[in-house]
Amino acid sequence: DDVLGEVPKAFIVLKNNKDPEVVKESLQDFLKDKIAVYKIPKYFEIRESLPKSKSGKIQKLKLK
């Protein structure tokens, strides 16, 4: 954003060939009741998998 320079983004790995748009909308609706509005991701990226290290941890720096 213009103030802090960061914007929330969610990375989604779909299972069972679900419709990406339906998943995005469902996730946004779910989060509205759980977290503050400014924390709800403005961007969603659908991925086949998340980058992981040899120990199985998600490599967050590769997602930026």
Automatic annotation (TrEMBL):
AMP-binding enzyme C-terminal domain sequence ranges: 1-57
Record flagged with keyword Phosphoprotein: no
Domain of life: Bacteria
Keyword Nucleotide-binding found: yes
One family name in Pfam for this protein: AMP-binding_C
GO MF annotations, alphabetized: ATP binding; fatty acid ligase activity; fatty-acyl-CoA synthase activity
SUPFAM superfamilies: Acetyl-CoA synthetase-like
One GO term of the biological process aspect: acyl-CoA metabolic process
Keywords: ATP-binding, Ligase, Nucleotide-binding
Family under the similarity heading: Belongs to the ATP-dependent AMP-binding enzyme family.
PANTHER family: ACYL-COA SYNTHETASE MEDIUM CHAIN FAMILY MEMBER 3, ACYL-COENZYME A SYNTHETASE
This protein's name: Long-chain fatty acid--CoA ligase
Source organism of the structure: Caldithrix abyssi
Phylogenetic classification of the source organism: Bacteria, Pseudomonadati, Calditrichota, Calditrichia, Calditrichales
